[in-house]
Amino acid sequence: MKITVLNTGGTFNKRYNPIKGQLEVPTDNIALDKIVKSCHNVQFDIKNIVSKDSLDFTQEDRETILKEIQNSTSENIIIIHGTDTVDLTSKFIEDKIQGKKIVFTGAMVPMSIDEVEATMNFSQAIGFLNAPIENGIYLSMHGVVVEHSKLVKDRSVGQFLVKN
Ligand SMILES: NC(=O)C[C@H](N)C(=O)O
């Protein structure tokens, strides 16, 4: 199976900068490369298109993501995105894309600090794309992959939960 991965930053990718004394979104794919190295039956095409905390996203950043999806020849796309505004980006592209399976994912804890959550969220997106699912826009977080608008970030528990 072939999967295009569009990396747009967020906590998933963050690393500690000891000089500045803070976590930053790097412009590389080190976090992702670490995960995909252990997936031998999937061919990944990874593109780093935006490197930001999603709270800093502009309309232009969302247009960049949309254009990448529209120009991609791949049917299967995973988008690494910050969790704070993944709902806004998925809603923005929702009516503009057809004929593709797109799974957004991210993490609450950086891969550089604890690999478990980021690896699980990303891996379940791969497993989901490998199943006979319908085209659409989905979100993969915390043990669940569903249609994107059905999974919401509950800030009181620091986790994504399925909407009732
Ligand atoms: N967990 C995260 O990704 C939160 C981060 N502020 C972001 O939206 O990029």
TrEMBL record:
<dbReference type="GO" id="GO:0004067">
    <property type="term" value="F:asparaginase activity"/>
</dbReference>
<feature type="active site" description="O-isoaspartyl threonine intermediate">
    <location>
        <position position="11"/>
    </location>
</feature>
<dbReference type="Pfam" id="PF00710">
    <property type="entry name" value="Asparaginase"/>
</dbReference>
<dbReference type="InterPro" id="IPR037152">
    <property type="entry name" value="L-asparaginase_N_sf"/>
</dbReference>
<dbReference type="InterPro" id="IPR006034">
    <property type="entry name" value="Asparaginase/glutaminase-like"/>
</dbReference>
<dbReference type="InterPro" id="IPR036152">
    <property type="entry name" value="Asp/glu_Ase-like_sf"/>
</dbReference>
<feature type="domain" description="L-asparaginase N-terminal">
    <location>
        <begin position="2"/>
        <end position="153"/>
    </location>
</feature>
<dbReference type="InterPro" id="IPR027474">
    <property type="entry name" value="L-asparaginase_N"/>
</dbReference>
<protein>
    <submittedName>
        <fullName>Asparaginase</fullName>
    </submittedName>
</protein>
